[in-house]
Amino acid sequence: MNQVNIKPVMLQWARERAGFDVADLLKRFPRIEQWEQEEAQPTLKQLEKFAKATFVPIGYLFLPEPPVESVPIPDFRTFSGDAVARPSPNLLDTLYLCQQRQAWYREYARGTRSDRLAFVGSADLGTPVEEVAGELRHLLGFDLEERKNLPTWSEALRRFIAQADAMGVLAMCSGVVLNNNRRKLDPREFRGFALTDELAPLVFINGADSKAAQMFTLAHELAHLWLGQSALSNIDMAVLPTHKVERWCNQVAAELLVPIAALQEEFQASAVIGSEINRLARQFKVSTLVVLRRLFDAGLIQQQLFYQAYEEELERIHALPKSSGGNFYLTQSARVSKRFARALFESTLEGQTLYRDAFRMLGVSKVDTFNELGRSLGFGL
Fold it and tell me: Within a domain: residue 314?
């Protein structure tokens, strides 16, 4: 047998990096305990399968010691007040993939002589929140009355993403890595991120989160584009972010989705607080947590009630069943952004992009799937 001399620490690192215990991999790799204790060595074929199972580039396993992996953009995430230590392979692979898509679209935009987007980097932390929220509302064509009349959060989110797309933003929303439903993204690790660029601004929303939470994430990441700053976020409405940038982006997002003036006009102080929060959440199409935060910001509820109601809502939301399924092609266009997908199809059909590269960036492997996705986007194939 062609066995490979791999340091046990590298095998343990790869397993733990992917979030697995030995028991999780024992069925696929019966000798994994012996490998990690240096009592046996895997063959090259076994090592290739192990690398695939743990989502690690096989070359990493030949290193003398584990590499220090860091997020390639500013990381503003915190957990209980502390910075998040190790990024998961699911997060890293999603970030790298979006960077590849952005780089491709940037070159496409240059080739088609697309105009630079003036809103990217047009603000700084000294710009009034209300001013930026107003600009966003105008460019998006954001209408509170229209949003109020949409029947579901899903439709409101779909509309919001379409508005961002029309504005020139590559808005991508997915709850998994590429199309691998076994590699789910964890909203507790991150809610979204922004990759700034004057030709190819990109925002990614963790689709494993609730639809209402995704509304706020999208608004928050759009605010990052106004600052012209890439960033990784895990938004928590219960506490004020320690980073000035995150605090400013939260304020812009909140003012865009739930303007204080509109909230003060709509709030019914005599109503039972629980039912009133739900009513306002339906009206503004945001989460009940965002409504609670805005009521507190506006001085309409006291701090003690805010924290008590927030914890109760958080428990209720975590207990809700997660939705799944749906039309694959609609889901796929949301995962990669319709703007990006249309550009990629056009470039591929014109022979400027290889099918192999298009398949890789879309996460598909069959021509039939590629063609059907194109038809769903309006291409006559």
Answer: yes
Averages of pLDDT over each 10 residues, the chain, 381 residues: 86 92 93 93 94 93 91 79 73 95 97 95 96 95 86 90 95 91 90 96 94 91 97 77 88 94 91 89 89 90 84 74 60 87 93 93 88 81 54
Asked if 250 and 269 sit in the same domain, the reply is no
Residue matched to tokens 């001085």? 299
Nearest to 115 by CA among 200, 233, 16: 200
Please give the Cα distance from 260 to 363 (Å, whole number).
42
The verdict on 14 and 121 lying in the same domain is no
What is the total count of domains within the chain? 4
DSSP 8-state class, residue 351: T
Indicate whether 180 belongs to any domain. yes
Residue with tokens 């309006």: 378
pLDDT at residue number 245: 92
Helix (H) or strand (E) holding 180: strand 180-184
**What is the span of the domain harbouring residue 147?**
78-257
Say if residue 102 is in the same domain as residue 235: yes
Same domain, 164 and 286: no
Phi and psi (nearest 5°) for 186? -100, 115
SS3 24: helix
Q: Are residues 25 and 93 in the same domain?
A: no
Helix locations, the chain, DSSP H: 8-17, 22-25, 32-36, 44-53, 89-111, 129-140, 144-149, 153-167, 211-227, 244-257, 260-266, 273-284, 288-297, 303-319, 328-336, 338-349, 355-362, 367-376
For residues 142 and 219, membership in a common domain is answered with: yes
| 15 in a structural domain | yes
Backbone angles phi, psi at 171, to 5 degrees: -100, 110
Instruction: Flag whether 18 is in a domain.
Output: yes
Q: For residues 175 and 206, what is the distance between their CA atoms, to the nearest angstrom? A: 5
Q: What is the pLDDT of residue 220?
A: 95
Going by C-alpha positions, the residue among 226, 266, 254, 257 that lies closest to residue 156 is: 257
The residue from 257, 277, 307 where one domain ends is 257
Task: Please report the pLDDT score of residue 100 as a whole number.
Answer: 96
C-alpha 222/C-alpha 137 separation (Å) is 11
Q: What angle do CA 140, 142, 147 make, to 5 degrees?
A: 140
Q: Tell me the pLDDT tens digit for each residue of 203-212.
A: 999 999 888 8
pLDDT for residue 322: 59
